[in-house]
Specification:
about 100 residues, about 30% helix, binds zinc ion
């Protein structure tokens, strides 16, 4: 009896852990800069977090200081710990598009 319980637990763990681990690992595809430089203009091509697929100046996962700003404007998904405007889990149709090079 005890053996089968252990088996179930191990199965559950092996199913959930890779799903979590897979997400943040895919940083900087193709040698592209993962993060914007400090002097990148907000809303420009350079202002982009390649790791999280959002403008770097609005990336709460890279800059935790932004979290209260989003919360204050009501743009916050409590469930997923992300701005609602960036929460693909709540809105899978959401498209965050990188501005084209040379804009601004
Ligand atoms: Zn980021
Ligand atoms: Zn959400």
């Amino acid at each position: 009896m005890r053996r089968s319980i252990l088996l179930v637990v191990t199965l559950c763990l092996s199913l959930t852990v890779p799903a979590f681990a897979a997400e943040p690992a895919k940083a900087g595809k193709g040698g592209e800069e993962a993060h914007a430089s400090k002097d990148a203009k907000p809303g420009s091509y350079e202002d982009w977090c390649g790791e999280h697929g959002v403008p770097d100046s609005q990336c709460t996962r890279c800059d935790k200081a932004l979290i209260p700003v989003f919360k204050a404007t009501g743009d916050w998904c409590q469930k997923h710990g992300l701005p609602l405007s960036q929460c693909l889990k709540c809105d899978p149709k959401l498209k965050i598009v990188r501005p084209p090079k040379g804009s601004n």
